[in-house]
From TrEMBL:
Originating organism: Neisseria dentiae
Protein name: protein-N(pi)-phosphohistidine--D-fructose phosphotransferase
Top-level taxon in the UniProt lineage: Bacteria
Subcellular location, record wording: Cell inner membrane
CDD domains assigned to the protein according to its UniProt record, in alphabetical order: PTS_IIB_fructose
Top-level EC class as recorded in UniProt: transferase
Amino acid sequence: MSTSVLFIPNHPAKAANALILARKLASLAQEKGLRAEVAALSDAAAGDFSRIVFVGQLPEQIGAFPADRIAVAGLQEVSENAAAALQRVLDESGSAAQSSAAAPAAAPAAGATAVSAAGKPLHFVAITACPTGVAHTFMAADALKQGAAKLGYTIDVETQGSVGAKSILSEESIARADYVILATDIEVDTSRFAGKKVYRCPTGFALKQTDKAFAEAVANARIQGGAAASGQTAAAPAKEKSGFYKHLLTGVSFMLPLVVAGGLLIAMSFIFGINAFEEKGSLAAVLMETGKAAFGLMVPILAGYIAYSIADRPGLAPGLIGGALAVQLQSGFLGGIVAGFLAGYLALLLVKHIKLPVTMEALKPILIVPLISSLAVGLIMFYIVGEPVAQLFAAMNNFLTSMGTANAVLLGVIIGAMMCVDLGGPINKAAYTFSVGLLTTQNYFPMATAMAGGMVPAIGIAIATMLAKRKFTESEVSAGKASFVLGLCFISEGAIPFAARDPMRVIPCCIAGGALTGALVALFQNELHAPHGGIFVLLIPNAINKPVMYLLAIAAGSLLTGVLYAVLKRKDQAAAAAPAAGTAAG
């Protein structure tokens, strides 16, 4: 059979680019004397084509196409050197769908080095990202690097933190990677990994169970686009499997900078007097209005990026519009969450099920999907969802503003304890998201409770290493000092190494301390205008009221955690052996 090539543009977020580049490849193939055609995925059939090239990424279902004829050409690769991309796919067809046809290698035994088909150590690339982009992002990256070195692998890790992407993965590194690990709690762009074996896990899993993460990646990675590593077709794309929690945290992560900036600007306006902002044209008024503008964008951004996490770029416009309507209908952050999920899944549904001729495919992501999904979201928000959610939000707000001391203390105990249960996990993030969302209603007490409670675990464990130094190894004592600094910065993850080694003692001690701190914050009626910053927020005037009482609440909870763990902690064998060795030497 003479060489003939069918080019199928397939990239939901960049349909027009994929079509243009597919036609460019077809033209180059024809110049080589090959038969080449371009067809939309919905119309394409394998027929007698000897090569089937997806331009962009693999589709979710490839069952209709023979795996041994398939190749993938990435958009960036074709844009930079179309001729080289064409030659590669002609030479390597079948690798995209069959690169994992062989049974996946078992996780290496201790001390063994797993190798690729070329006989070299397995090469991984990874991305780490968490909602705040501070602690888990970088701790997971370090854990993956150390784990790879221990197992004999090579790895390049890109961190997508609060200051942007660092150590960005090069095309060369991605090209030679055997596996991709996405240790992310939020959605990240994965288009550059088309045709690669991709494994997804939370940052906490990569941090706490690093060896298992590598083993799972080797055994259970899926070809980007939905094909399982075993060569079977996946039931659904990985993005859909990430679920409610991951989509919500993606929205929260994009919203957080607005909350921080807005809250601190409003707090700064009070430097000039509690009512100074009422004088038009004054600096206090400008600070107040700028802060309010930031707060006004919070809910639309939350909704927009929830939708973006679900449906990629086609979900962004309806999500932003739905979030703006939530503000207009006074349904607050609850309405924004509803609007974001509604917009995201509507856009995803339309992207999947609207079939157009290849010549009109480019209109789908920029005209048809945004228009229909935005209209649907608007109608549903106005006529179905908006009013009930607004009433629920108003009732919750009224309860929080009118509750007595006993109820406030109970809520403080709950939020403070939740912040300490899983040290940055789903329960912690649920309490944090709830507290951040209430900043838009000028309910600042839950935020004060959440941040104070979140500081307790790391500070408390550090105190324990000081009080019961003989029960800890030298490395644990050093880690305790680092944990103290992290705790002051409102980074609970400083306690994770201790919780991973001794969860049955560490977690209850942290919960007890967090609950006490939450109760005291409620009792002292502390209010916090900023959602992050830890102890350093106190440097900004009026960011928190009654700062001395706030510090007292944090100190009390941390001390309780430290004392409890110092008492309950069993002496480490390595710590016990050190003095014994010293005695023998003497």
